[in-house]
Amino acid sequence: MAGPPTFATPPGFLGIRRQDPGAAFCVAGVPLDIGTTNRAGARDGPAAIRRASRMLVDGVHPSHWVDPLGLDIADLGEFELVLGDIPGSLALIEQQAAQCGHLVTLGGEHLITLPLLRALAKRLGGPVGLLHMDAHVDTWQTNFGQAYRHGSVFFHAIEEGILDPRRMIQIGIRSPVDRETWDWTLGQGITVVTAQEAHESTPAALAERVRGVLGQAPCFLSFDVDCLDPAFAPGTGTPEIGGLASWQAQGILRRLGGLAWAGMDVVEVAPAYDVAEITALAAATIAWEYLSLQALA
């Protein structure tokens, strides 16, 4: 072990202590958690992901031999929220995200992606493409009877014109969905790869499919940990059986270098349901893999 032992690593993501919104890459936590009808608990997700990231700072992975800590990177801590006020919290998240350049966001629930995309689209001057890895389509017009919940985030993003559905691909979809929402999703031009299709394919083939959809224009990665099977990520609010294995997700992401990545989030870690930190570690590793792609660029 070349450096200090991992238990001595400070609580910032990958041990980063620097807090500078002017850094080329900024990590931020957004502990938004308005709950679901069955489980809640994503509020503590950012802290859990940071703690688990201590497992990733002792070296580099031999599949790519790059260290994301070589980037100009800062950890800004937690974004502020307006407790109990969903529109107010979304506006505040967007305001804070707009002050950053390339943002890596630790959730919190999936609704945080909407203000992140709002800020990004304004900064870039137009809609962005999206790789969405999830068990759920998240294109319901309403979710649990409310307009703004984690299951409606991409419906609003498409309706607001901040997300180009023709440059959007979803991987890992497998939850029950009503036919109207399914037809609307496909009708927008979104490419949907179900979990079953992913299992019958390979990470290399799926990565090529992603490249074909995203092209070379700016794109965003939104990774919901329930994309992974509950065997690999039990600590989440809406688990669905039959999901991707951790190695499949890594295999896809490691083949996506060279795209015009403009930001990412990893969401829906609910530590209260986790076992031995495996969900938090999976989320931390996904963010680490994404930063490794940027280091390769």
From TrEMBL:
<dbReference type="Pfam" id="PF00491">
    <property type="entry name" value="Arginase"/>
</dbReference>
<dbReference type="InterPro" id="IPR023696">
    <property type="entry name" value="Ureohydrolase_dom_sf"/>
</dbReference>
<dbReference type="InterPro" id="IPR005925">
    <property type="entry name" value="Agmatinase-rel"/>
</dbReference>
<comment type="similarity">
    <text>Belongs to the arginase family. Agmatinase subfamily.</text>
</comment>
<dbReference type="InterPro" id="IPR020855">
    <property type="entry name" value="Ureohydrolase_Mn_BS"/>
</dbReference>
<keyword id="KW-0378">Hydrolase</keyword>
<keyword id="KW-0479">Metal-binding</keyword>
<dbReference type="InterPro" id="IPR006035">
    <property type="entry name" value="Ureohydrolase"/>
</dbReference>
<protein>
    <submittedName>
        <fullName>Agmatinase</fullName>
    </submittedName>
</protein>
